[in-house]
Automatic annotation (TrEMBL):
Domain of life of the source: Bacteria
This protein's UniProt keywords: Cell outer membrane, Membrane, Signal, Transmembrane, Transmembrane beta strand
Organism: Pseudomonas solani
Keyword Acetylation: no
Membrane topology: Multi-pass membrane protein
InterPro entries: OMPP1/FadL/TodX
Location (main, coarse): membrane
Name under which the protein is recorded: Outer membrane protein transport protein
GO molecular function terms listed in the Swiss-Prot or TrEMBL record: long-chain fatty acid transporting porin activity
Annotated compartments: Cell outer membrane
Gene3D superfamilies recorded: Outer membrane protein transport protein (OMPP1/FadL/TodX) (2.40.160.60)
Presence of keyword Hydrolase: no
Family per similarity comment: Belongs to the OmpP1/FadL family.
Any one cellular-component term (Gene Ontology): cell outer membrane
Length: 482
């Protein structure tokens, strides 16, 4: 194996300035635009995606330790930075039926007088495509300390169904995205042990919309018995956001010269979201003064559902969506100079997410139960160093869904998933401190069964079907060791 010079050069200086400029620019632009299609997003750079996250961040000279396992930074001997661009392409398609509160197939009435109706469809592709950024920087300070910075997208989810989706009383658009900036510090106790901890500031933005059939809600609640469904269409849109702090800590251990283990814990982040809601109305023709705005402003809905005080022009809204605690155990073993194998187990406390609650000035608008369960993810993968320039990698991960059959809906139609990943790195002979990385990860997702009864105040309908999902991730990065 070659020994790389530590002496700076003009080329090194140029790369340093370019990489840091790119990192700052990506952080400014990417934090505002990052989003993902599942609640939990792996917070690794491109090499981590290529291994299906196996071994976490305890691999040699892995700057993603700045967020994932800060203790491992203590074993990084030189400053190192990494900028990754991750492209996610997620497909979701629904098959099944939806019914109104009286058990009839869900249709929309276009004209209340003529009685003309419109059949509703399967919602098209409810998935999305998007670029996600991650950046990491680790700087050793003396022989025992190291300082790290990271920008990640730790949580996110998006689904978008067509406006004539038969399940629109459950969901139309849902977008929950987070962007986090973290700083961390590690301390090397000796050549075998290190500890680390960090703080994170995380911004969460949420946007949800769905149809509210007010006549159906009045009928399901007993205020207007037998009221027809499908006449009123009030698309309710809620937009909220918040900035919250959190913390994380870890330990790293090298029991032998060829083994590294790490244990990391990210604490639960309390997240009080604040914003507003509004309505967009597209009722059937011929309702006259008995349309959705009239029903809302008359106070009839408030009489049927005490405390449900809505305004047709919109109002303040608040919600809460805590980020669950997470713990990860990582292991990496170097078999020889060419081959290394890693494995990881991650536990996420999703049981802390009980429901999606929306309030306005202290009055409950809706409280949708989800009752998530704790989950485990298992991964195994490795690196094969073909030569001094080229490294190949692969990995497999099994990730459990926190959703339950009894509460899963079209808003978050998640299922157990399997990641199958391939990747590689190329280190330039002209400057061996610089490498580029590429990874491809395919997601195979179990179908999500939807057998959910809606709340009366949301129309009281039901949905019976399944969502078939699949996804692919392409990741590119540049890594520079100063």
């Amino acid at each position: 194996m070659k020994t790389y010079s530590k002496r700076p050069s003009l080329f090194n200086f140029t790369c340093k300035r370019s990489l840091l400029s790119l990192a700052v620019l990506s952080a400014v632009i990417g934090v505002q635009q990052a989003e993902a299609g599942a609640f939990a997003v792996p917070t690794y750079g491109t090499p981590g995606w290529g291994r299906a996250f196996a071994g976490g961040s305890v691999w040699k000279n892995d700057p993603s330790a700045a967020f994932n396992n800060p203790a491992a930074m203590a074993f990084i001997e030189r400053p190192i930075g990494q900028v990754s661009a991750i492209y996610a392409d997620i497909d979701m398609k629904f098959k099944g039926e939806a019914y109104d509160y009286q058990g009839n197939p869900r249709v929309d009435t276009l004209d209340a007088i003529a009685g003309t109706t419109q059949e509703l469809g399967d919602g098209g592709n409810g998935g999305f495509s998007k670029w996600l950024p991650t950046q990491f920087l680790v700087i050793p300070v003396g022989d025992r300390f190291a300082f790290g910075l990271g920008q990640v997208v730790p949580m996110g989810m998006r689904s978008t169904w067509d406006k004539n989706f038969k399940g629109k009383d459950f969901a139309l658009d849902t977008k929950i995205e987070t962007a986090a900036l973290a700083g961390s510090l590690s301390f090397k106790i000796d050549d075998q042990w290190a500890v680390g901890a960090g703080v994170v500031v995380q911004r969460t933005q949420g946007f949800v919309s769905q149809n509210v059939d007010l006549y159906a809600a009045a009928g399901a609640g007993g205020g207007l018995p037998g009221a027809p469904a499908g006449l009123t269409r009030a698309k309710m849109r809620v937009k909220v956001d918040n900035v919250s702090p959190g913390w994380f800590a870890s330990v790293a251990w090298k029991p032998t010269e060829v083994d590294t283990l790490g244990l990391a814990y990210h604490a639960k982040i309390k997240n009080e979201l604040d914003g507003d809601y509004n309505f967009h109305f597209s009722d059937a023709d011929g309702l006259g003064g008995f349309d959705s705005p009239a029903l809302i402003d008359s106070g009839i809905i408030d009489l049927i559902y005490p405390g449900l005080s809505l305004k047709s022009g919109g109002d303040h809204a608040e919600s809460r969506m805590d980020i669950p605690a997470m713990a990860t155990l990582d292991w990496v073993h170097d078999f020889n100079d060419s081959f290394s194998l890693g494995a990881s187990v991650t536990w996420t406390e999703w049981s802390s997410f009980k429901s999606l609650k929306l309030e306005s000035h202290g009055n409950l608008i809706v409280d949708i139960p989800y009752n998530y369960k704790d989950t485990w993810m298992y991964s195994v993968g490795g690196d094969y160093r073909f030569n001094d320039q080229l490294t190949l990698r692969a990995g497999v991960a099994l990730d459990q869904t926190p959703t339950r059959n009894s509460t899963r809906d079209a808003r978050i139609p998640d299922g157990d998933r399997t990641f199958v990943s391939l990747g590689g790195s190329y280190r330039f002979a002209s400057d061996p401190n610089l490498s580029v990385d590429v990874a491809y990860s395919r997601q195979f997702v179990d179908e999500g069964r939807l057998r959910t009864q809606n709340q009366d105040r949301l129309g009281g309908g039901s949905i019976d079907g399944k969502v078939e999902s699949k996804g692919q991730i392409v990741s590119l990065s540049a890594t520079y060791m100063f």
